[in-house]
Amino acid sequence: MSPGLEPYQTLQKLTRQMLESAQGGEWDRFVELEQQCAHIRETLILQPSVVSSASAIQNNELATLIQDILSCHEDILSYVLPRQHDVKQLLDSFSNTQRLQQSYGIADTPT
């Protein structure tokens, strides 16, 4: 692979690790990896485009990397969206409990 593609290779590696974390339910690790990916994406946005100065071979390599990253993201969504729904239900339940306690003047008790 070409040197200009290194950030994309790293992004691909991290995205695959994110998928593995999602599959294993390792959500803390997932968040850490997502933060690393976000940093790389921000860096790529600020850099001049690799595509404009790349050869056809490099562009093909870049396309393959991006396709793999997008494919991983699709797979990740199949794990994240149901979990997101579960978390929303928990937060809604907590919020409802707090409102009831406030309505009846019940102090929070440690569980």
Please provide a written account of the structure:
The chain has a domain at 3-76: Flagellar protein flit (Methane Monooxygenase Hydroxylase, Chain G, domain 1, Up-down Bundle). Helix content is 82%, strand content 0%. It contains 4 helices and no strands. Helix 1 runs antiparallel to helix 2 and helix 1 (6-24) packs parallel to helix 4 (56-103). The radius of gyration is 21 Å and the shape is elongated.
Keywords:
single chain; 111 residues; mainly alpha; Methane Monooxygenase Hydroxylase, Chain G, domain 1; 4 helices
Present the secondary structure layout.
Layout lengths: L5 H19 L2 H20 L3 H4 L2 H48 L8
Helix pairs in contact: 1-2, 1-4
Please summarize what this structure is.
The protein has 111 residues and is mainly alpha-helical. The chain is 82% helix and 0% strand. The protein has a domain at 3-76: Methane Monooxygenase Hydroxylase, Chain G, domain 1, CATH 1.20.58.
CATH architectural arrangement of the domain at 3-76: Up-down Bundle
Q: What gyration radius follows from the Cα positions, in whole Å?
A: 21 Å
- The span between the termini is 55 Å
SSE string, helices as H and strands as E: HHHH
- The fourth-level CATH homologous superfamily of the domain at 3-76 is Flagellar protein flit
Unreliable residue stretches: none
Write the CATH fold name of the domain at 3-76.
Methane Monooxygenase Hydroxylase, Chain G, domain 1
The portion of residues forming beta strands comes to under 5%
Question: Sheet with the most strands?
Answer: none
